[in-house]
Amino acid sequence: MKIALHNFLTTLRRYKVSSLLNIVGLTLAFTAFYVILVQVRWEMTFNRAIPDSERIYLVAPLSPFDETSLSINSPRPEGEQLIARSPEIEAGGCIRPWRWEQPVWVRRGGDLLRLQASFNEISTGFVEALGLKAIEGDLKALAQPNSVALARSQAERLGLRVGDVLWFGDEENQRPEEQKEVVALYEDFPANSSFAHIVGLQDVGDQDLDAPNNWNDCYFVRLHKGTDSEKVARLWSDLHLSINRDYLERMAPIWGEEISEEELNDERACTLIPLDELYFNRRLDANADDFPIGSTTLTYSLLSVAVLVILIALINFVNFFFALVPVRLRSVNILKVFGAPTRSLRFSFLFEAFGFMLLAQLCAWYVAIALKGTEFASYVSSSLALGDNLPVLGISLGVSFVAALIAGSFPAWYITSFNPAMAAKGSFVGSTAGRRFRVALLGVQFIIAIGLIVFSVCTLLQQRYVRRFDLGFDHERVLTFYFPSSKLSDPDSFDTFASSLQSDPQIAGVTASGNRFVAEAISVFGRKVNGEEVGIHVRFVRSNFLDVLGIPVLAGESFKPEHDRDSMARFIVNDLLARKGLKVGGKLDEGEVIGICPDIHYRPLQYPTEPFAFVTGTYWQTRMSRFYVRLAAGFDLDAVCEGIREKARKFDPGSEVSDFQFFDEEIEAQYARERRITTIIGLFTVLAVVIALMGVFGIVLFETQHRRREVAIRKVMGATTQEVLRLFNRRYVTLVTVCFILAAPVGYWIVDRWLGSFAYRTPIRWWIFVAAFAVVLFVTVATVTFCSWRTANENPANCVKSE
C-alpha cells in the first residue's frame, strides 16, 4: 500500500499537466453529477416523505370533460359512500384543492392586527388518510363549528397558538359566530409533496353532500396492506352509476327535459393513483398551483445528462492514461526487469485510479458547498448542502468507486501485459487495435457532445418560442397586483378605486379578475353543449377586462359597464366553444352569451386550447382581487407602485396591496420549472463539451508523442508545418463527420420526444444540427492544432537525439 501511495504521489508530481487536467475534468463531472442528482432525487422522491405514501391513493375518475384524462376532483356523494362501504379503506376524506388567501384579524397584546392567511377546506377523514399528526391541540376538533388548524409555519407567522381566536373579512366582523378558534397545530407537509402549500385547514362541513353534479372535491384514501386498489376503483364506478342515475331521474321533471339512456348509464371508469406516483401522472387534469405535476421526460433528461457527463470524464481518464503510455512505459519495464510482480504493478495503477477519483470527489464536494450561496443554487429545487443529501453522496461515492474500477482496470492490464523487449521497441503503442480503441472512445465523446448540443439548443429555443408566442392578447406594459379588499365587491366602490388609480397619467387602464388570468385550471364548468358534455374553463372578470388587454370580439358585443351591476351573468366565449354550438344569444347557467372572442391562450403552452368563457355580473364581483393595470409609455415603475399603495391605503386601510409583478413575469412563472431544468441542462451540456475536448487533448498528446519520429522524417523530406498540421487534423475531421452522421438522427429522435410534451412547440430546425457539427469541428481542429503545433515546428535533429 505504501508503495502504491508513493507511486501515486510521484505521478502527481511528475505529470503535472496531465494529472491536473484529469482531476479538473473529473471534478467538473462529479460536481455536475451531484447537482443533477440532487434535483433528480427531489423529483423522484416527490410525496414519498409522507408516511405510508404507497398505501395512500387519489380517487381519480375519468374526466367528464375529456375522455383521455383523469379528473383530480370527484363528487362528494360517491366519495363519502365509497369510504363508508369499502372494507378495504382504512381511512379517507376530501380536500378542496384550491386555496384562498384572505385577510384575518387577530388580537395581540390588546391590539387588533390584520394579517393574510391561506386555508384549504377538508373533511376530517382527510387528516386521518394522510396521517397528519398534531403537534399541539387535537385535529379531530376540526369537526366542531368555527374551528381551524394551522401548520407550524403559518402559526409562527401569525403568532397564534391553540385556543387563540381569529376572524375573516373586515375588522367589524368580531361577532362570536364569525370568530374561528385555533384547535390544532400540525407539522408542515414536506416541501417536495403535493400538499406543501397547505398551511391552514378548515372543515368543509356538509357542502355538496347531495350534489353529485358538483365535481369540487379531491378524495384521498388509505388502504389496508395487501388490498386490491382496482376493486375499490370498481366500487366507485358502481356507486357513480347508481347515484348519477337517481339524481338525473329526480331532476328530469324539474329541468323539463328528457334524459338519454347514455346519460343514465354513465359507467364512468375510475383509477386509484398511489400518492408516490401522483407527481408524474400526466393524465391528471390538475392545476399546478394546487397539485404540482412533474415531467418524466425532463427528469430522465437530467439523469441522462448526469450519466453522459460521467461517461465522458471516464473516457478522458482512459485517454489521458494512454497519452502517457510512451513516457511511463520505461519505468514499468525497469520494474518488471527487476522482478516486480505484474499483480503489484496493476494494483498500483488501480490505486492511482482510485486516488484520482477520490481527489476529484473531494474537490466536487467543495465546489458544491461553494455553489450553495450563488445564483446557480436557485435553479435547483432542493438544498445543495451535503448534509441534506446523504443518499446522493452515497450514490456519488459508489459511482466513483465503480468508475475507478472500470476506468483503471483496462489501462492497468494494458500497460503491464507486454513483454519488456517488445515494449522497448514501442511496437504496441501504434498497433491497429490500440488505435481503433482510442478512436472509438473519442468517437463516443463526440457523439455525446453533438447530441447534447442539439438537445440543449432545442430546449432553449423552445423556451424562447414560448416567451415570444402570440397568446392572443396584449401583455406588454401590464402591471399586476393582488388587493383582497372586501369593499371591492360593491361595483360602485370598485369604480371609485379604479378611477383613483387611473387619475395617475402613467396608468392607461385598470381592470381586475377573480384569479390569475394565465393559469392551468382555475375554474372549469361542466356543461352540455348540443348534447355533448363540455368542460368550459372560466375567468371571472370586470367588464373592461377585454378592452384593457386588447382582446377583440369577433361576433356579438363586448361587456358593458352596466353588466358589472347586473345580477344576470354575461358570457363571452371563445371561438372553439362557439364552433361546438354555443352561439351568441345562447344560454349558459343563469346567463347569456353576448359575444365570441378568438381562441386566446389562457393556459401554459403545454396544454392545447380548450372551450373557454369570460363571465361578469354582480354574482362574481366578490372574486375581483387580481388587478391588471396597463401603463403608459415612459412610466416610472417605483412611482406607479407607490401611488397604488397609497391609494389602496386610503380606499381600505385594513387591506394591503401585494404581489406586484409584470404580466409577462406572471406568464413566465408558468414555465419556471421547465426553465430551471433546461438551464441546468444547458450549463452542463457546455461542461460536457469542455470535458470532451479535454479528451481530444489527451488523444492528440498521445499521437504527438508517438509520431514525433514520423513528423521529423516528413520534415526532413520537405514537409511544411501546414502539411504536418493537416496530417494531424485530417483524422479528427473525418472522425467528427462520422460521429455527426451517427448522432444527428438520435438527437432528432430525443428532441422530438421531448417537444412532444408541449401542445405548441418550436420546429426542429436543420441549422441546429449544422451548428452543433460546426462548433464541435471548429473546437476540435483548434485543439488539435494547438496541441500539435510544437511537434510540427520541432527541429528534426532534436527529435532524433531524444528518440
How would you describe the overall organization of this protein?
Helix content is 49%, strand content 17%. The strands form five sheets. Strands 16, 17, 18, 19, 20, 21 and 22 form a seven-stranded mixed β-sheet that branches. A six-stranded mixed β-barrel has the order 4-5-10-7-9-8. The protein has a four-stranded antiparallel β-sheet with strand order 3-11-1-12. The chain folds into five domains: 1-37 and 310-429, no CATH class; 53-95 and 210-285; 100-203, no CATH class; 430-469 and 673-803, no CATH class; 484-656, no CATH class. It starts with a helix and ends with a helix. Mean pLDDT is 82; it is low at 422-429. With 803 residues, it is of the alpha+beta class. The protein is elongated. The longest helix has 37 residues, at 432-468. A hairpin with a 2-residue loop joins strand 16 (524-529) and strand 17 (532-540). Helix 2 packs across helix 10 and helix 13 (432-468) packs across helix 21. The protein is built from 23 helices and 24 strands.
What are the main properties of this structure?
single chain; 803 residues; alpha+beta; 5 domains; seven-stranded mixed beta sheet; six-stranded mixed barrel; 24 strands; elongated
How would you summarize this macromolecular structure in one to three sentences?
The protein is of the alpha+beta class. The protein is 49% helix and 17% strand.
SSE diagram, text form:
Elements: H1 2-14, H2 16-44, E1 56-61, E2 70-71, H3 76-85, E3 89-95, E4 100-108, E5 111-122, H4 124-129, E6 134-137, E7 147-151, H5 152-158, E8 165-168, E9 179-186, E10 200-203, E11 218-223, H6 229-255, H7 261-264, E12 270-274, E13 284-285, H8 296-323, H9 325-337, H10 342-371, H11 390-415, H12 420-425, H13 432-468, E14 478-482, H14 491-502, E15 507-513, E16 524-529, E17 532-540, H15 545-548, E18 555-556, E19 570-574, H16 575-579, E20 587-588, E21 591-597, E22 612-616, E23 626-631, H17 637-651, E24 658-662, H18 663-668, H19 672-706, H20 708-716, H21 721-755, H22 766-793, H23 796-802
Parallel strand pairs: 2-13, 5-10, 7-9, 17-22, 19-21
Antiparallel strand pairs: 1-11, 1-12, 3-11, 4-5, 4-8, 6-9, 7-10, 8-9, 14-23, 14-24, 15-23, 16-17, 18-21, 19-22, 20-21
Helix pairs in contact: 1-10, 2-8, 2-10, 2-11, 2-19, 3-6, 8-11, 8-13, 8-19, 10-11, 13-19, 13-21, 13-22, 19-22, 20-23, 21-22
